[in-house]
Amino acid sequence: MKVYRHTQLGDMGTLKVREEALPEVGAGQLLVRVKASSLNFRDIIIAQGHYPFGIVENHVPLSDGAGIIEAVGHGVRRFAVGDRVLSSFFTSWFGGRIPAYREQYQKEQDGWLTEYILISAEALTSIPDHLTFEEASTLPCAALTAWSAVSGVVPGDTVLTLGTGGVSIFAIQFAKALGARVIATTSSSDKFEKLTALGADALINYRETPEWHRAVRDLTGGLGADRIVEVGGPATIAQSVRSIREGGQVSIVGALGMEGEAIDIMKLFFSQATYKVISVGNRSDLEEMNRAVAAHQIRPVIDSAFAFEDALSAYERLASRNVFGKVVIRN
């Protein structure tokens, strides 16, 4: 089988295809023929050698993938040959409180940038019937992070999303499914039409309006947003503190920009808001989200799709940060 391995982190030139023997299926395992995989910004950080959680070299990249079961190991009851399945971001966190130890792709488990993957049956979930493999491959990290970030939103709430990456796009879709009003920020007015089509109710160009927290206040009658899906980190968190409604929640899901204004601790305190770090979610959360995706017939937004042989171009596309939705690799 053909498989990508990254032999030296920090050097994209070492991410190359090689031929390896097809693995044998053991008890409790599945052999999945991968049909599609998708990239997250985490994958860029790993490839650059900046990921802080001990990723090993010579790994198979990508945590997010979808495929069809080719072989089933002894004792497996959850799935059968021919089932369509997708990955769960944390392969051993099935539900409940975040465990102290969570297995990760590209550390304890090889990833999905391969023709076949050998994996525990417990690390997978079923694909919603209406989705293609390419669409399904976008769900495990970005979609579940967005789902967790808007958990608890109720009809009539105002949700603020930042930018047009995978998490932010999914957050718009889920927030609308939950009956919320959505304010979306973007760096380009050219994306206004696409954001409106997804359901965004109000739009802010943050390049033209650098103090966008003022626009958020204006759009909410001075109250602020009930929920903010905060993906920018240091680059945006100070303005998110100024944009949140008293008693609201800022869901912190990323740090796309490492430089920005310092947080005003008194403004943070007097916001009386909850600042919650989102750690993607567990398999039970993923299954719940998939039911919502099916019930609302939500279709992931794919920015671009690349052939398996052209995986490096997919990395380059996402690294440019000029995307609208998810970048996918098609097997």
TrEMBL record:
Q: Which residue intervals define the domain Enoyl reductase (ER) in the entry?
A: 10-329
Picking any one GO molecular function of the record gives: oxidoreductase activity
| SMART domains documented for this protein | PKS_ER (SM00829)
Note the SUPFAM superfamilies from the entry: GroES-like, NAD(P)-binding Rossmann-fold domains
User: Which domain of life does the protein's organism represent?
Assistant: Bacteria
Annotated InterPro entries? ADH-like_C, ADH-like_N, ER, GroES-like_sf, NAD(P)-bd_dom_sf, Zinc_ADH-like
Give the matching Pfam families: ADH_N, ADH_zinc_N
Entry protein name: Zn-dependent oxidoreductase, NADPH:quinone reductase
